[in-house]
Each structure stands twice: as structure tokens, then as C-alpha cells.
Amino acid sequence: MVEHNPDTTGELFGDDPKYHDPARVYPLVADAGNEQLLAEWLDSVEEFEIVRQPTSIGEGAFDLCIVDRGGLRQNYEALRERKQSEQPVLLPYLLLLPEDDPEFLQDESGQLPDTLVQQTFDEMLSLPVRQFELRWRIESLLRMRGQTRTLANRERKLRRFRRAVTAAGHAIYMTDTDGTITYVNPAFERITGYTEDEAVGETPRILNSGEMPEEYFEELWETIQSGGVWEEEVTNERKNGERYHANQTIAPVPGPDGDIEEFVAIQTDITEHKERQQQLQASRERYESLFASIQDAILVADTDRRIIECNAGFVETFGYTLEEIEGKPTSFLYADEAEFDEMGTEINHHTDGRKFTKTVTYETKFGYTFPGETNVSDLSDAEGNLIGHIGVIRDISERQDRLQQLKMIDRVLRHNLHNEMNVILGRAEQIQATANGEPIEHATTIVESGNRLIQTTDKERDVTKFLADNPQPRSRDIVPLVTTTVAELREQYPDADISVDVPDERTAFAVNPFERVIEELVKNAIVHSDQDVPSVTVRLECDGETVRIRVADDGPGIPEIEQRILTEGEEMQPLYHGRGFGLWLVHLLVEHSVGTLTVEDNEPRGSIVTMQLSKA
Prior knowledge:
This protein is α+β, with helices and mostly antiparallel strands. Helices cover 45% and strands 24% of the residues. Helix 18 runs parallel beside helix 19 (577-592).
């Protein structure tokens, strides 16, 4: 026996629109003689398979039940429930009744015979019955069962299709052969803004934006009316007048005779995709224009450091076209193989995606070598995966020549200035030691001015050296940098109150001589303080990806003109002397560390200078 499950088609239904082969017949006949005759006859018919006493009527797998009045008395409720469970598929019941008992149904059930037959039984035969008539009635009922199963399967598929169309995210609508809309799904309403009541009865021209030429619609109709499928991009208009782009597929729906009965259209809203494409194209055009117009040489290489792209500036600088160098390793552009290896080490070191700058000696196609300041950054795909590196190369030959000249002038002037000032200071000190009265005052003024001039010269030397070395920011532990510098300043200025508030460890990106920032700011606060005991506090704080260093004092405050040197790097004026050079050096150090610097008033008096660096 196959267990019966009224909620599934399973073995009982399957996808076959017919009944079982052979058809399963269940004889529920209480009369023993009739039951034996019926069973023998069913066994003799090849198209039928007799079903023997199932555990229960509700669990039996059969296509038709033959029942007499005894079987009816015993199983009426079970038969009725089983029949209802099979709906909408017909489970036919054939009732055998003796000719001599016409009042049987009314007597037993209290119902009229035709009502009972209509509700439970599909056919009645009077006993005795001829075999050919019984077989004809059975086959007729089985055909009815097959037909109802076919209809049920079609209805089930239709319901599934309707659910799918209703739930679809694409706009679906149907028209008759004249182009009048007969159906729209919820996605159509959502995308176009037209409700079903507003769209049905209209034509798709309600969506016409005016952007598609008449030839478009003529070709569309010619295609689908000839039985073809139309698939094309279209620009339509929503109910509110807003334009939208869609991929549209329109297909003819043939009837049973093969003639076209209606058309079905499916639209996929691609407006956002189209806008992204347009933005991407605009970005690409801007990038290509910028890429081509930059005078510096730009070289793009993959992760194996093989060349994949270059700009016109590269061609002009190096003499190679992209066709000549594409796919080659970048090593052949280096004048020194060791520098190529150093660049590789630097690239591997910067795995955090941060840009870095390195000066490399390059060699052109024509054998000319030059120092190239190279700004290197990562190249990533849309998913953020590293696919290569971009190098922007600038020939700094002239800059290095100027720096070389500057360093030479610096050495000569500093040497001569120091020597001559030492002579002047020595003579002034002799005058202080041997003279009386007014000459001593003049000598004292000479000494003080000379010392300030030497200090200015030393600061100028620091600035010149920094600009010439051009150090790059790297990860540094700021805590020992601060504590060591403050310890040295405490020894140098024992009468000042210098306090430090720092954590155990805090790393940030900063250039190598960044400790000079702390030194210059603390010194500046102490030297220019109007307090008997100058007070300076250095505090280190961290907020997310930012490290802040605050230097606060209780002095008269930093004049506005000098604040602009710190925060904006304003051009030095001749009267700034050493203090101006020191503040300018602070600005340069912070700027080259890719940091920012602000100045604010302290309470109740003084200034707070804050340096902000990126956390490493």
C-alpha cells in the first residue's frame, strides 16, 4: 500500500495527467458473493489492478472505489472525507444497488437519493450488472478523474505562475493584439507609478518619453507581430514625468491554434545602473584627460612591477612609448639596480596603502640619468583588491642643483659669519673686560646682537638641512620622543616648570627630526614668558586614528603674526630673526609629517599649540 497524503500529488498524482496504469480499483463490497465475483472479474481485466483492504480508506492509494450498500453503511463518513481530501481532483465512487431496494438510500441516510449521489457518488448501477456496462462505467469515471487531475495540475501551475509574476521585481504587463494593456503586475505599478486601474485599457504609449524615435516602435511591432521576440533598451517616462531606463523584452503569446492572442512585456529598471555607467564614463574621461595632461611622468605597474600604462609626460621624459615598454619590468628604467631593490623593499613596507615618496636615479632611452622624486600609491580594483602601483615621477635635477648651491652658500656664509662674529664677539668681550663707562654698554649690545645673529644662523642651517634632506614620514613612537626632549629641556632650563602627560606608548607617522617641534615650542614658551617661573605642559592624546600633541603655556601668548608662521607657513619677514626661523621650522616639520597645527588661547592666559598626526 502507498500511504495517501492529500496535500501532495506524490505517487498518487505525479505529473502524469492520467490515472495509474493499470488503474487501481478498490472494491468496498460487503456482500461476500458479489465481492468475490467483482474481484475475479477485476483480476481478469488487464487495465485494472484490484486494491485489497487498505489499513484505512484515508490511507489507501486507489483511482476508483466500487461500493455496495453494506460498504456504504460501514464507511460512509470515511468515504466522504476521503473524497473531499482529493479535491479538486475527482476520486470517483461507483455505487452498486439491488433493483429490489430503491428506498435504501433514503431509509439509511435520511437524505434524498439525488442529493446524496451529487455529494458523494458519481455513478450508480443496479445489480445485477453486465460486465461490459460495468467496464464502460469504470472507464468513463477514470477518464473523468484524469481530466480533473489535468485541470488541477494546470490550475496549480497557473497559481504558481501568478504568484511568481506578482512577486517578480521586474515590471510585467500584457496587451491584446491591438496593443491595449490587459494586465500589469505590482512591480509595474511601483516602477511606472501607474496603478492597475490606470494602466489597464490604455496602451504602452502612456510610458512614452518622446526620446525613442518612431522607427523604434515600427520595428518593434513588425518584429512581435511576425512572431519574433523584441529585446532592446528603452527610455520611458513614469507617471510623475520622471525618465527611467529599462531593458525591455516583448514576446508574442500564441493560442491553441498557433495564432498570436496577446503579447507579454518584461521591463528591468536599469536607471541606477545607467547613471552609474554615465558617472563612471565621466570619471574615466576626467581621469584620462588628467592622466594625459599631467606633465610629470606617470607609470602604472602591476603587483609584479611590470609596466601596464604610462602617460604622455612619461613618454616625453623617458623617450619610451607604451608599445615599447608594456609588460616589461620597471627595473630597466633604474640607473642603479640597488635602488630598484630598495624601492621594492619600500613598497612591501607600505602594506597599509599609504602613499610614500622616494627619490630614485632613472635612466632615459637616450642614456640620460636624472634624479626622480617618485610619489608611489597603490592601485586597487572596485572590490578594494591590490592590483598594482602608480608612480608619479618628477625630474628634480634643477631642484637638487639649487639645493646644492643653497647648501654651498649656506656653508660659506655660515663659516665666514661664524668666524667673523667670533672675532667681533671676542673684541667686544675684551672691551667689556677693560673699558669703563659707556663703552661697556656698547660692547654689551654688540655681544647680545652677535649672539642673536649666530642663533639665527644656526636656525637657518637647520631649515636648510631639512629642506635638502627632504625626509619622509614614518611610524614613530611619539612617547619617548616627547619624554627625552623634555628631560633635556629641564636640564637646560632648571627654573622652568615643564610637566608631561603621556601614555605608555603611542605611534604616529612623523618625519625623523620631529623632536625639534617639541624643543622649539617649549623653548619658545620659556624664553618669551613674562612669569618668574614659566610653566609649560606637554600632553599626548589619541582619538581614533588621530594622535594629538598639545603644548600649553601660561605666558603672554603667541603674537598673531607669528601664529600665521606656525599654522600657515607665512613668508618670513627680515625682523623675525631666530624666533621666526624656529617657528617656521616647526611648521615645515609638521607639514612634512602630513599633520596639521593649530593655535588657541589658554585659560586664564597663555597659548595652546596642538599638532595633529595620523596614528600609525
